[in-house]
Amino acid sequence: MLRSRLARPIRTKALSIFAICLLSWPGSCPVLRAQSPEEGQISALRSRWIQTLKAKQLDDAMALYDANAVFYSPGEPPTAGLPAIRALFKTVMASYDSDINMQNTRIAISGELAYDSGDYQEVLTNRQTNAKLSIKGNYLAVLHRTAAGQWQIVQHMWTMRPAS
Length: 164
Description:
The longest helix is centred in the N-terminal third of the chain and has 23 residues, at 2-24. Strands 1, 2, 3, 4, 5, 6 and 7 form a seven-stranded mixed β-sheet that branches. 37% of the residues lie in helices and 38% in strands. By secondary structure, the chain is α+β, with helices and mostly antiparallel strands.
């Protein structure tokens, strides 16, 4: 009986040490791994995208996209090219107020290309009726580094399902 009570704290301590070692392994835990400067730039781009959408800053939002970008909305044909994306965003910004929150789950970079993916939750408020629509889903942004060293979105894709 005494041996059993003594073994429990030792086992618990050993498991705790194992968990700390596992989590501190480089790259195994995104919370503990510091972002690279490039990952920080991509995170900042995502934050600017959210800010421009919420503030209805159409020109600033379009500056985040490549001239030949493609925007994929759930259940819609792809919107290709900056003029078409601008028209889509202009309509959405005029029709809805967005309260979107995005949670990144992965950023990966390979040379001049990168992707940013994760989950989002959004409440869209219809500006005419004040009706609210809660949605959630996943996003994927494929980016490329310009000759000036800035990241721009070249492909932007969304999934959508009703929020519970």
